[in-house]
């Protein structure tokens, strides 16, 4: 796995800080007497924020974002778009992705094949307890609940809209609970199997949590994202994007 640059803040906050600092810098320059045509200010904002991003070693696509954002904002001001377009787009994105922004985990769904193979990993223990950490739209939970009426399942999801969809989807199943909140606040002691499909970012911390909280004999399953330096006991390829797999650790 490639080594990841350690930054004290999530890239999103650093990127916003770059834009804000560039804006303040240009404001100070204007106050000091600098005069530019309107497009000149936009280009200066794009260049300055990208330079700050470069200095903070933000990944390449954030630099592109810095270059494009002020120009797109300038373009949209010339279009005379109604204000609700911006508010609506921002709210929709926040409702779907807001919960995963700082933990750097977007929403995507496990394939049917992954759900079926996950079901095959459930221990036969009657009344077993399973948690989906970041349950998204609830696909895996709804599938497991249908197959194992005896199991007690919990899904925790930090984004409002996916959480609502998961709750509605699992409503007919009496053995599933869906909770809006952070996976970091869920104690893992009581679960026979903890499943996560997140991103590389939270894996080291999540593994430390699983190691310290899960009982001996329980199972930790990660969809596609490895734990650095901790080879899984079992790897099960699943349909989906290239490299999709379930990795299983016996605790
Ligand atoms: C890749 S999706 C996985 C969905 C589902 N578990 C599956 O396998 O199909 C990851 C989900 O985790 C959620 N998430 C990210 N950070 C979280 C956190 N700290 N606490 C709870 N959920 C989180 C995201 O909002 C996203 O819906």
Describe this structure in words.
The protein has helices at residues 11-31, 38-55, 60-79, 83-97, 112-119, 139-147, 160-170, 203-213; strands spanning 129-133, 152-157, 176-180, 193-196, 219-223, 234-237, 245-250. It is an alpha/beta fold and 251 residues long. It folds into 2 domains: 11-80, no CATH class; 112-250, Vaccinia Virus protein VP39 (Rossmann fold). The chain has a 7-stranded mixed β-sheet, with helices on one face. The model is unreliable at 1-5 (pLDDT under 50). S-adenosylmethionine (SAM) is lined by residues 99-100, 103, 105, 107-110, 132, 134-136, 139-140, 156-159, 162, 182-184, 197-198, 223.
Bound compounds, each kind once, are: S-adenosylmethionine
* Unreliable residue runs: 1-5
Q: Tell me the number of structural domains.
A: 2
Taken from the alpha-carbon principal axes, the silhouette is elongated
* Known CATH architecture of the largest domain: 3-Layer(aba) Sandwich
Q: What percentage of amino acids are in beta strands?
A: 5-15%
| E-strand count | 7
Radius of gyration: 22 Å
- Separate helix tally: 8
Give a quick account of the main beta sheet: strands, pairing sense, barrel closure: 7 strands, mixed
CATH level 1 class label of the largest domain: Alpha Beta
CATH topology of the largest domain: Rossmann fold
Strand order of the largest sheet: 3-2-1-4-5-7-6
Q: Calculate the terminal CA-CA distance, rounded to whole Å.
A: 22 Å
């Amino acid at each position: 796995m490639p080594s990841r640059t350690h930054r004290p803040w999530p890239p999103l906050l650093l990127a916003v800080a770059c834009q804000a600092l560039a804006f303040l810098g240009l404001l100070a320059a204007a106050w000091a007497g600098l005069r530019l045509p309107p497009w000149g200010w936009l280009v200066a904002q794009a260049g300055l924020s990208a330079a700050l991003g470069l200095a903070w070693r933000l990944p390449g696509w954030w630099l592109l974002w810095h270059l494009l954002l002020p120009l797109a904002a300038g373009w949209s001001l010339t279009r005379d778009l109604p204000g609700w377009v911006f508010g609506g787009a921002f709210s929709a994105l926040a409702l779907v992705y807001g919960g995963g922004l700082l933990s750097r985990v977007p929403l995507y769904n496990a394939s049917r094949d992954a759900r079926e193979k996950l079901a095959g990993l459930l221990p036969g223990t009657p009344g077993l307890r399973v948690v989906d950490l970041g349950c998204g739209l609830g696909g895996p939970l709804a599938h497991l609940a249908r197959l194992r009426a005896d199991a007690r399942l919990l899904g925790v999801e930090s984004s409002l809209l996916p959480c609502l969809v998961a709750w509605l989807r699992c409503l007919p199943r009496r053995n599933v609970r869906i909770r809006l909140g952070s996976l970091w606040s869920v104690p893992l002691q009581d679960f026979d199997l903890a499943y996560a499909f997140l991103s590389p970012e939270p894996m080291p911390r999540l593994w430390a949590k699983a190691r310290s909280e899960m009982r001996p004999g329980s199972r930790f399953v990660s969809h596609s994202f490895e734990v650095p330096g901790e080879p899984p006991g079992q790897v099960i390829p699943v349909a989906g994007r290239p490299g999709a797999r379930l990795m299983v650790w016996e605790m």
